């Protein structure tokens, strides 16, 4: 077996890119077929140590299309089978759990999530159809073992409750089990996945500093991006996502990392999606990559 392989199944934020109902400046390029932009599905990655079994980190609404685009995840055994052994959730947002419903056709797998995320899934009657899904609750800080001997740990990340559960005044930068990152390692290789973060804490920075690869929240380039282009009324931080640029942005917060750094969970309004844009050049000059669907990372 190899050490650790990750495949980016989807790299866009909720709504994908281009978003079905959007003609913001970046989406307009995609609808026009501009070669500088590339369509992206909603964020999820797949992890394996090379034994033929895979773990999904989050299950996006685009999961069926992602499986069709990824030969490693396609059935190749008996009449009904799948190399997907488990799903790990970093939260219970719509774009993190909806794809579970695409895995309901009687092939067993295990769902790993915090008690808070399990409770959100269990509260929706539709997931009662998931009779072949074993549910295992994992507390932040608890180490658990995935297929192929991949060790995993969930850790709390500042954020908020899923949109459909938040109240009128949600707590944004509070660490809780409702929003977590995941650290994965095997034989000395270490990957950290944080698709949503309202801030970077000292403990997060220490954990990320140990990683060989970090896939980090790249939702918006600037905090008021959606307000500027007229697609929304909330800042990125109000939605639980720190911006890439600016005071308190991820470029500054994580500038000392030696790890391979990749932005993921990129909103359709974000100009880093445009090859050659000033914003893309800025993140690349700072040592970051921008994730694309199908990207393969071998540690």
Model description:
The chain has helices spanning 25-31, 63-68, 94-97, 115-122, 202-209, 225-229, 250-253, 278-285, and strands at residues 5-10, 44-48, 54-57, 84-88, 109-113, 133-137, 143-146, 150-159, 174-186, 189-194, 213-217, 260-264, 288-290, 296-298. With 299 residues, the chain is an alpha/beta fold. The chain has a single domain, classed as Ribonuclease Z/Hydroxyacylglutathione hydrolase-like (Metallo-beta-lactamase, Chain A, 4-Layer Sandwich). The strands form two sheets. Strands 6-5-4-3-2-1-14 form a seven-stranded mixed beta sheet. Strand 3, helix 2 (63-68) and strand 4 form a beta-alpha-beta unit.
The CATH class designation is Alpha Beta
Strand content: 25-35%
Number of separate structural domains: 1
Within the CATH hierarchy, at the fold level, what is the topology? Metallo-beta-lactamase, Chain A
Q: What topology, given as strand order, has the largest sheet?
A: 6-5-4-3-2-1-14
